[in-house]
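Curious: why this fold?
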Amino acid sequence: MELDLSADIAALRGTYADIAAVVDVGRLQSEIEELSVQAGAPDLWDDPQQAQQVTSKLSHAQAQLARVTGVQQRLDDLEVLVELAVEADDEATAQEARDELAALTETIDALEVQTLLDGEYDALPAVVTIRAGAGGVDASDFAEMLLRMYVRWAERHKYPVMVMDTSYAEEAGIKSATFQVDAPYAFGTLSVEAGTHRLVRMSPFNSAHSRETSFAAVEVIPLMEEATEIDIPENDIRVDVFRSSGPGGQSVNTTDSAVRITHLPTGIVVSMQNEKSQIQNRAVALKVLQSRLLLLQREEEAKKKKELAGTITASWGDQMRSYVLAPYQMVKDLRTGYEVGRPDDVFNGDIDGFVAAGIKWRKRKDD
């Protein structure tokens, strides 16, 4: 039988070589060795905050190295699989080789996109907040659909994801939700999802089932380690405690463990109800608040520099993506032009195409 995949494999090896050069595998291995020494220090946990930073960095670096070096091994295994298929004249093995070629192509494409993530915060974990916008009950339901979409996306990639806070709407859906994705380049990847999302569908929430348009806003910030250096005076914050609630306002525990921190000078509000104790919830909420304040501080500094330079750049548009379920089915990104005709797949977490197109679009725009 004939099974010539040599040209395809050679092309993938060329792309992989470029990726490995950008990632700098040697530097990554040295970083892992250094972090491993720090993680093995007997006094590591004398400073729990520093210990968490070290172990998190080590975990991310190891995951990145495994992702890159794993591709090399899979390319080698694929060549062996092709040889076995030809020698045994076995169509089942040949099909297995074709399937692996397709899967490898997808993996390498994703890695190639990741090499475009070279921003200051791109490698950090992400904290994502979704808020229902105009559209009443449909908007609340849409916000919950987006939350499920992103959680499914993270689970598809085996990225650790934690829903930190959820504010449920009275009739259906959610008013808002905040979740964290703790994976290498989570912020750089998800940052292109920030903006206003629009849903068009036949509403299940009115008796006429008429076509309705609703909106939800997605905010993405990096969870920055250096944010812990920001000092927040106690008189600058108001801390409220309450019982964690579920759909319909039902309490999900019997103690006031959930925490809401309001930063009085800026009006920024951060809630946390995922952890078991009030102390844990306060610590996580404070870390997110510090990240928001640091990002705000740097945005203001950057804005001042741009004003001094006399440059004006356009902000994100009011609608960056439309999800249309009626009268036809389509999801389209209005910035990149990327679109698919399978909204159900998208809402089940299949958004890699949109993310890749967004990252490439942003790179072209910034260059």
